């Protein structure tokens, strides 16, 4: 499969992989999807409390691998303030901060190793403060007269991903003396409909350029966009069948450093749906027409011969050739007429692809 | 016939100093969305006054100012704000014009490299030829990264001839391999623009109508030794709608100017450049990565292109030969129309001639079509709303600048330039970003983290 792997990752030296690995510190960025509606639908299988526990175990073990390893955590949420940082959090001189700390102090054992405690504390604090604010936000949306039925809820995963990439960009640029590896883990519950396609792809390509792997731990419904993101950044995509065993997934398959992946057999699936969907009919197609100006994908030639997205007028000559039915030799036709069944079905097949819908 | 009419170096002294280059850049109005400019100029209008130094004369008549003269303490005796301003001013931010243009996204480009004797000169380090080759490799990588469904061919000018180094194809590895082999070739003889252009014309002749036809020439010499009348070649180029762009390494040459002017609808400003230094050379090279705006004057017709979106099969169980290279592979992509097995995308199916791509390849070009709006610099004030960069969480210099300091600084014009708020705001989501994030977001990411993180925007639309 090497030949199909993306070129950005092809020139990873494979010979002395093991030697180089040991000492380079690595930054693990976790993006946690905190969409309350989705979590509600998963209630039977896993709760947010379970997943934060498992995540903390993973973060702590990442930190213990190398003393210079660092972590960052972001949340994405469709209702509260969208995507936001959980750790590291900018310093706030707020009185409420200390109050919050006290109320959750019992969640973390005070005698825990300090490096772990600070992270565990602030992650739990932030998650619960986000959840505390959730009811307010619902009301807020209600007051503004905007509810889910009206507009599609926009997922903010891309926002969190963009923020994570800017952070990684900063870390990589400031630490130029000691190189640092970075990867991103997305724990996602939302489905594709909430993801803006173009922005998601922009993030994927940026990550690919920066050689940052995107791993996905998917709960709920499967996601094609995230599969594509993983595939092009050499990441692991895992659909979690048994959410109760999440910690197992997180500390095994999703824990392997990207540089070790060429020599590991990963449980990632390689059959990714790369087919495109038509911009007009949203039908999934494998042969389509692409506007040479705006690159929109169409399953049919629009009948006004104008691009529906950018309104460019297409060259009538070329449209004509595209619309033309395949020419068949008359001799063959005569033969076909005899056994009409096979011939007719074949012809409708080809004409369907080329004629515009009414 | 030699057409070696050359202009001497037409650089005026102002263009020799680094600062003044920006001024000169800006004076030419951005045409066709491919001109670059610096952030500074989008904020402060350049007029004749700015060209003048403190003494009222031109800036080169001024006394030389040492950088430590610019640095002055603020009221608390700290020089931090000025120093950070200086650092930011040095991060020259090249920004694209963001007005969406119709661009020719599907491109065919012939890269013509000068390999005549002058290229062995060492005014560029380590030598002109090797610097050109290493930039050309970077260019090809970047080109295919951003234009995955485009094609390139490489031609060199050597010994008065044009030699084909690498056939027109969409595979970057072939080109890079060919360029690496060129590293061992000594530059020799005279260059011939006519031969190179005729060869490029031959290569571009059969490209489909939906593709652009472009030639990019790196020209080190000041003359061209041609076998015939280059004017005829230019007419042929015009007829076949080939657009030629030239990067000169030494000085303006009239014939280059003419070629560019005639093949770019009278616009030689955005198609013929002469480099100022190594960095500028690289920038010019990288500019060619961005697809050309479709010229309004052309009667070019837009087309639909039939494309196949093959699905990938991980493993057939046994290795099979791919139909493109006859290589043994496990799995591969299956052409949707003829079911041939393909190992590498994007490509044109060797069996049925259908263009095969992944939808992700198309997505790579979308940012050319939907560019991200520029952020605006927040004016210097006493207090700011934001304390941290919204993207990377870097804390901004918190202290607002005292108006007295600004006033004081304005007396020394240059110092005032270096006092910044360090905050750059997206007008849509009103989030503030640091300069590093601003550059990163516009050059690599093409998303505004603030807009994407905001959950209510979609509802409001
Ligand atoms: Zn279009
Ligand atoms: Zn092949
Ligand atoms: Zn085929
Ligand atoms: Zn920043
Ligand atoms: Zn924004």
Description:
Chain A has helices at 17-21, 36-41, 48-65, 95-104, 114-143, 157-174, 197-209, 224-232, 246-251, 316-323, 330-338, 340-354; strands at residues 26-33, 70-76, 84-87, 181-188, 213-218, 237-239, 276-277, 284-285, 287-291, 297-298. Chain A has 358 residues and is α/β, with parallel strands linked by helices. Chain A has 2 domains: 16-263, von Willebrand factor, type A domain (Rossmann fold, 3-Layer(aba) Sandwich); 276-357, no CATH class. In chain A, the strands form 3 sheets. Chain A has a 6-stranded mixed beta sheet with strand order 3-2-1-4-5-6, sandwiched between helices. Chain A has a two-stranded antiparallel ribbon with strand order 7-8. In chain A, helix 7 (197-209) links the parallel strand 4 (181-188) and strand 5. In chain A, helix 7 runs parallel beside helix 8. Residues 1-15, 93-97, 145-151 and 340-358 of chain A have low confidence and may be disordered. Chain B is of the alpha/beta class. Chain B has 4 domains: 3-51, no CATH class; 54-98 and 372-461, Herpes Virus-1; 107-301, Rossmann fold (3-Layer(aba) Sandwich); 307-366, no CATH class. Helix content of chain B is 34%, strand content 16%. In chain B, the strands form 6 sheets. Chain B has a 6-stranded mixed beta sheet, with helices on both faces. In chain B, helix 7 (128-146) packs antiparallel against helix 8 (172-182) and helix 9 (193-204) runs parallel beside helix 10. The model of chain B is unreliable at 1-56, 92-96 and 457-461 (pLDDT under 50). The interface between A and B is large, with 84 and 81 residues. The structure holds zinc ion (5 copies). Chain A: Keywords: DNA damage, DNA repair, Metal-binding, Nucleus, Transcription, Transcription regulation, Zinc, Zinc-finger. Chain A: Pfam families: Tfb4. Chain A: One of its GO terms (biological process) is transcription initiation at RNA polymerase II promoter. Chain A: Its main location: nucleus.
């Amino acid at each position: 499969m090497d030949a199909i792997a993306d070129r950005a990752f092809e020139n990873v030296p494979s010979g002395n992989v093991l030697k180089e690995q040991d000492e380079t510190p690595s930054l693990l960025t976790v993006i946690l999807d905190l969409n309350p509606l989705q979590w509600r639908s998963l209630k039977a299988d896993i709760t947010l409390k379970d997943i934060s526990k498992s995540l903390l175990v993973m973060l702590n073990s990442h930190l213990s691998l190398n003393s210079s390893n660092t972590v960052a955590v972001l949340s994405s949420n469709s209702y509260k303030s969208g995507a936001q940082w959980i750790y590291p959090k900018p310093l706030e001189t707020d009185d409420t901060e200390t109050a919050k700390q006290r109320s959750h102090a019992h969640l973390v054992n005070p005698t825990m190793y300090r490096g772990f405690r600070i992270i565990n504390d602030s992650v739990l604090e932030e998650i619960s403060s986000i959840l505390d604010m959730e009811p307010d936000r619902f009301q807020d949306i209600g007051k503004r007269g905007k509810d889910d039925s009206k507009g599609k809820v926009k997922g903010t995963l891309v926002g969190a991903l963009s923020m994570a990439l800017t952070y990684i960009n900063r870390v990589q640029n400031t630490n130029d003396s000691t190189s640092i590896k970075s990867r991103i883990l997305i724990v996602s519950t939302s489905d594709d409909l909430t993801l803006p396609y173009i922005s998601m792809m922009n993030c994927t390509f940026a990550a690919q350029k920066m050689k940052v792997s995107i791993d996905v731990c998917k709960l709920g419904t499967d996601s094609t966009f995230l599969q594509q993101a993983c595939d092009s950044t050499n990441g692991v995509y895992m659909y979690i069948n048994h959410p109760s065993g999440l910690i197992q997934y997180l500390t095994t398959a999703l824990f392997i450093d990207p540089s070790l992946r060429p020599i590991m057999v990963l449980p990632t699936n390689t059959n990714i749906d790369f087919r495109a969907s038509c911009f007009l009919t949203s039908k999934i197609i494998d042969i389509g027409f692409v506007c040479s100006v705006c690159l929109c994908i169409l399953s049919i030639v629009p009948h006004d011969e104008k691009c529906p997205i950018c309104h460019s007028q297409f060259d009538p000559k070329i449209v004509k050739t595209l619309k033309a039915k395949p020419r068949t030799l008359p001799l063959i036709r005569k033969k076909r007429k005899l056994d009409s069944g096979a011939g007719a079905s074949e012809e409708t097949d080809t004409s369907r692809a080329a004629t515009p819908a009414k | 016939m030699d057409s070696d009419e050359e202009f001497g170096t037409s650089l005026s002294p102002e263009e020799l100093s680094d600062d003044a280059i920006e001024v000169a850049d800006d004076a030419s109005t951005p045409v066709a969305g491919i001109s670059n400019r610096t952030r500074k100029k989008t904020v402060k209008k350049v007029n004749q006054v700015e060209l003048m130094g403190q003494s009222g004369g031109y800036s080169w008549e001024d006394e030389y100012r040492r950088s430590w003269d610019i640095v002055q303490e603020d009221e608390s005796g700290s020089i931090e704000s000025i120093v950070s301003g200086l650092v930011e001013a040095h991060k020259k931010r090249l920004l694209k014009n963001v007005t969406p243009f119709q661009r020719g996204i599907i491109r065919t480009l012939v890269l013509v490299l000068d390999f005549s004797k002058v290229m062995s000169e060492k005014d560029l380090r380590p030598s002109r030829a090797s610097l050109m080759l290493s930039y050309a490799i970077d260019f090809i990588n970047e080109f295919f990264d951003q234009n995955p469904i485009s094609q390139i061919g490489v031609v060199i000018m050597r010994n008065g001839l044009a030699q084909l180094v690498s056939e027109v194809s969409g595979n970057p590895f072939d080109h890079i391999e060919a360029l690496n082999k060129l590293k061992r070739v000594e530059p020799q003889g005279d260059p011939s623009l006519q031969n190179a252009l005729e060869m490029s014309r031959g290569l571009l002749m059969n490209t489909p109508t939906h593709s652009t036809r472009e030639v990019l020439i790196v020209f080190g010499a000041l003359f061209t030794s041609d076998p015939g009348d280059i004017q005829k070649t230019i007419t042929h180029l015009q007829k076949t709608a080939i657009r030629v762009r030239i990067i000169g390494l030494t000085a303006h040459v009239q014939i280059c100017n003419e070629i560019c002017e005639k093949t770019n609808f009278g616009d030689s400003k955005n198609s013929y450049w002469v480099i100022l230094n190594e960095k500028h050379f690289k920038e010019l090279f990288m500019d060619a990565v961005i697809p050309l705006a479709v010229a309004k004057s052309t009667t070019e017709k837009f087309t639909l292109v039939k494309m196949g979106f093959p699905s990938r099969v991980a493993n057939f169980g046994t290795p099979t030969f791919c139909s493109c290279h006859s290589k043994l592979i496990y799995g591969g992509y299956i052409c949707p129309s003829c079911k041939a097995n393909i190992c590498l995308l994007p490509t044109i199916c060797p069996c049925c001639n259908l263009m095969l791509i992944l939808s992700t390849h198309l997505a790579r070009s979308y940012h050319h079509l939907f560019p991200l709006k520029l952020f605006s610099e927040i004016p210097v004030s006493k207090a700011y709303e934001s304390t941290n960069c919204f993207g990377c969480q870097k804390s901004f210099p918190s202290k607002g600048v005292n108006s007295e300091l600004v006033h004081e600084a304005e007396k020394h014009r240059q110092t005032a330039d270096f006092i910044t708020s360090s905050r750059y705001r997206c007008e849509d989501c009103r989030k503030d970003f640091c300069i590093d994030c601003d550059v990163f977001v516009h050059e690599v990411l093409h998303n505004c983290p603030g807009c994407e993180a905001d959950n209510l925007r979609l509802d409001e639309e």
